[in-house]
Amino acid sequence: MPALASAGILWKGDFETGNTSQWTRDQSVASSRLQVVTDVVRDGKYALKAVVKQGDDPINASGNRNELLYLTHETQGKEYFYKWSTLFPNNYPVHDSWQVITQWHQEGCCGSPPLEFFVRGDKINLRVGGNTMPVLWQTSIDKGNWHDFVLHVKWSSDKKAGFVELYHNGKLALPRTYGANQFGKELNYLKMGLYRDDAIKPEGAIYHDGFTMASTLEDVMPPAPAPVEEPVPDTTPVPDTSGDTTTPPVAEAPTTPDAPITLPNIGGQAPTGTATPISNNPNGLPGDESLGQPGGGCSASGTSGTLPFAAALLMLGAATLRRRRAPARVRSQASKR
Questions:
Q1: Model pLDDT for residues 134-174, shown as the tens digit of each residue
Q2: Which domain covers residue 126, as residue numbers?
Q3: Which of 81, 155, 180, 219 is close enough to 8 for a disulfide, judged by CB 3.0 to 4.6 Å?
């Protein structure tokens, strides 16, 4: 056997040699019926294209076939894992009769194999124990898409010891199911390709890739990569304001002293009962002390002319008053005379 990457891998028939040299031998009518191709591949660079035409009968037996063989020689009590992929092209002929695509055949001459994957109509079927036994699992051929199989088998002719377990496309499709998968003491061997009822007329082709035989599940179906840890979000609670109708507070402008109120200054005196700041009383006239307004004083503004003019008016008023009152007193005195 060639050197293998893992101690658990017992054999590979994945065609990565670019030919069929990994296999023991073939049963085909021509080399063109079992081609190693590069255009339709599941893994690596190469895959097998098996073609069958009506009349292809390389071993003069029932049905038409072109298959590869590998002498796996599974013995009683041995437990193995097998991995491979199969694709049915879009022009694959659907027929009501049988078409075997992968099988473990007994070394004896004839009869249905103890373990087989076969197609009937548009369904893939798995059966163990010969053609008189029921089908254990079934799925659509799903033309144009690869089927990934991982088959776990414990080989035994004892129906209470032997079992099969199937993974399909990475998921468990058939839980461990017990049954006899060997006939007596006969050893089994693997056959892969296409073998079908000779009543099927259209040419049929099928693709196989990546066959591996191993002793552990991890060698044929590595575990899924560990999930990447997402960064933990900040759990600081954020206030929920969705239902809060309270108007948010508005920042108040800085308080400044009230601007001085300019009132009419008639004669330099504010109206009664109104307090006027000193700065608005440039004439230094008496204020309203009843409101706490201090009395007069010198104007801090330095305004000239206003104070003499006001004093002159007061003096003129007093003189006029004296003149008016004087004649009255004269008249009054004259009358007394």
A1: 999 999 999 999 999 999 999 999 999 999 999 999 999 99
A2: 9-220
A3: 219
